[in-house]
Amino acid sequence: MGLRDLERAIERGVDGVLGRVFRAEVSRLEITKRVERELDSGARRGPHGTRVMPNDIEVRVHPADAEALGYDTAELQKDLLSLAREHARDAECGFDGPLVVRVTASPDAAKGTIEVSATTEQSIEGVPPGLSLIHISEPTRLWSGSRMPSSAL
Questions:
Q1: Which of 5, 79, 104, 149 lies at a CB distance of 3.0 to 4.6 Å from 1, suitable for a disulfide?
Q2: CA gap 12, 10 in Å, rounded
Q3: CA dist., res. 153 & res. 125, Å (int)
C-alpha cells in the first residue's frame, strides 16, 4: 500500500465517522476542493518532461446527498470539467488523454462523504489530449439512488 492509498484510507475513515456523527450535507465547494486535491496528488512528470494531471475523474456521493445538492448531473460534470481544466492551467500542467468527469449517486458511498478517484488514461487514437468528453445519453438528475430521466420529473 502506497502513501497515497494510506492517505485515502485514513480520509475515508475520518469522513465516514464525521459524516455519521454530524450528518453534514455535502456541498458543491467540498466537491470542488476534493477534485482539486486529487488532481494535485496525482500530478506527475509526463513522457516529454511536462507535468500532467489525472484526466479521468469519478465523483461518488450517497443518493441522499446527491438529491440534497439538487444539481443536474450534466451541469455538475460540465462545471467540474471546467474546474479541472482551469486548475491544470493554473498549475502549468496538461493531460495525457481526454478529460473525463463522471458524477454518480452510489448507495455504497457513506452519507455525508465524497469519494473521488482520479486516474491517468492514455489518449485514444484520434482524440487530442485534454479534450473534454461528456457521455450523456439523455438529460438525467441524481434522484433517490437511481438515475431517472428528466422527463419523468
A1: 5
A2: 5
A3: 39
Q: Name 110's Cβ contacts closer than 8 Å, sequence gap at least 6.
A: 12, 15, 16, 19, 20, 62
Backbone phi and psi for residue 40, each to the nearest 5 degrees, phi listed first: -65, -45
pTM of the model: 0.69
Cell of 138: 439523455
Q: Is 56 helix (H, G, I), strand (E, B) or coil?
A: strand
C-alpha angle with apex 119: 113 to 120, nearest 5 degrees? 160
Look up cell 455504497; give the residue: 108
pLDDT digits (tens, 9 = 90+) for 30-55: 999 999 999 999 999 977 788 999 99
131-147 confidence digits (pLDDT tens): 655 554 344 444 434 44
Burial group, residue 31, by CB count within 10 angstroms (0-12, 13-18, 19+): buried
Residue 119, C-alpha cell as written in the block: 486516474
All three cell numbers of 61, joined, read: 456521493
Q: Which helix (H) or strand (E) holds 102?
A: strand 99-105
- Taking each helix axis from N to C terminus, what angle separates 73-90 and 28-42, rounded to the nearest 10 degrees? 40
